[in-house]
Specification:
6 strands, alpha+beta, 6-stranded mixed beta sheet, 4 helices, 2 domains, 157 residues
Amino acid sequence: MNLADLDERTRASLDTEPPWPRPAWLIEAAQLMRYPMLWEAVRTSWNRDASERATLAQQLVDHANHVLRNRYREQLGLAPGPHDTSSDWMITTSAVRAGATARLDGAEIDAVEIDTDPSVYAIGFPLSEDVVVTAVLPRDELIYLDQSFTTDTPEQR
């Protein structure tokens, strides 16, 4: 059973059938609320111009900080709203460690990681010369996740 922790009000709203018909997409969306969701876990970044491209380490840090800022505000002691200017909680590129490996299409590839934050684990790798993949995963969910990546091509759709 892989159910999300729901408060009583949310559980009741999911369990109660309304007196009017609902479209299939809404019924499916309501059912998905019962399961934990990863918040913006994987990011693929592409830049045509290499001079505009941030380093892999910087892209991984930016992704990790984005997830922390938006998912772990309370744990970080951040004030509600978008205007909090504190940055002492932010991860820096000094936390990025080379020498990690990621699994892509069944093969091990070189990657970088951030394994120092108590809330998230982050890993990133270049997919090609101009494409970078980063993933930021909640530490509490790591035991449930297969950290393998698969490329998606038009032939696979």
